[in-house]
Input
Amino acid sequence: MARIFSGIQPSGELHIGNYLGAVKNWVRLQAEHPGAIYCVVDYHAITGSYDPAVLRARRWEMARSLLAAGIDPAQAVLFMQSDVPEHTELSWIFTTITPLGDLERQTQFKDKSSKMESIPAGLLMYPVLQAADILLYRADSVPVGEDQVQHLELARDTSRKWNAKFNVEFFPEPKPLLTPTRRILGLDGSAKMSKSLGNTVGLLEDDESIWQKLRPAVTDPARVRKTDPGNPDVCNIFQLHKAFSSEATQAHVAQQCRSAGWGCMDCKKVLHEGMVAELTPIRRRAELLAAEPARIADALSDGGKVARGIARETIDRVRDIMGLGSLHAP
Ligand code: TRP
Output
């Protein structure tokens, strides 16, 4: 059976963009693939300047959000990347077989580095660490969004190259398992939903503050007056209906929009109901976890143990194949 691995940056509390774009899929997959491995990638989060206290808080909040969203430590392995030092060891090994040109061609590197005066080498190596994350567990299926496809290609190249160099069939070729939901745009209706752009709805926000964000959110720009018919296909609010409302409601909403039967506020109220229904249980679980932080710590500690066990096995084999380590006399 496929082994699932995925990682998420410790950006703090989840927002509905990364919930719908990734984590909801993780929750679904953990039931089908017992032992799925999910990692908060804190080593990836230090390639820019950052405040250690903020990182510490964000790692914790991410772990709490993931557990609240339904990642179940009884089914999946949830851990902090930096609790498993083998990630960095395998990453170093992979740097020795990765062509510099392949790294310089990565879109994410080009975007981020173009805005920097001094580029940390770690930013260039980011996808190598990502390949190490995946291959350390010999995972072959990686649930990610569209934006990670290029990084996954590099991970496949790395696997193939390492196997060929040492003439073994050790690492699998990890494939992206693309999230069914389309990329979620922010409430401005134009940019990707992202915390740094301030266009998100937090996964743990209360009903009233969700409404305060939905109210001014951008809809079909052609609907200036309530009597103007709208086009749900170009409306970001309708995209959110697809994630939070039943198919019957979606059909009704679309029809009311096209016929100008409803104004955008009516449509947003129905969306709000759907969001509240899905997010309330998540918020309740998050509150319980906040009251019992030991449950978060225990989950991470148990997950770290399982992950280290698998990682250790892989690294021992890798070292042996590469002529490193001291497993036996030559
Ligand atoms: N680069 C991924 C992102 O920004 C996070 C990540 C790191 C990841 N390591 C991974 C995703 C391994 C999947 C598998 O979303």
